[in-house]
Amino acid sequence: MAEPAIINVFSALADETRLDIVTRLAIGEATLSELAENYDMSIQAVSKHLSVLEDAGVVSRRREAQRRPVRLEAEVFDLLTKWIERYRRNAEARYQRLDQLLTRLDDQSPDSDEGVTA
User: Is the dihedral of CA 77, 83, 86, 91 positive or negative?
Assistant: First the structure.
């Protein structure tokens, strides 16, 4: 079973608006107001989306004088990348075993060209 942190991240990213926010933040930091400009919803609604992302560890907010920029947390994406890569390697190993099996079966089958004369 997947680790709870991974489940929380995938759950947070499953929402279209939150995924869009993450895509925007990949360009660079932004404030809540700057992010809210892109959506037909209240600042409070965008703030709730940010809270979900923050609780999952995907983004963080810090205070810079009067600004509170939101930024992506690269460590979370490193964790996701490692998790995905582990399953990609497992799938690749299964495909290689399947290829080997199919090659052995093909080698064992009678050649369909034998016995055919032109």
Answer: negative
For residue 6, what are the contacts with CB-CB under 8 A and spacing of at least 6? 79, 80, 83
Q: Are 86 and 52 in contact, with CB atoms under 8 Å apart?
A: no
Output the CATH code of domain 4-73: 1.10.10.10
CB within 8 Å of 114: residues ≥ 6 apart: none
pLDDT along the chain (118 residues), means of 10: 81 96 95 95 96 96 89 90 91 93 86 54
CA 50 – CA 56 distance, rounded (Å) = 10
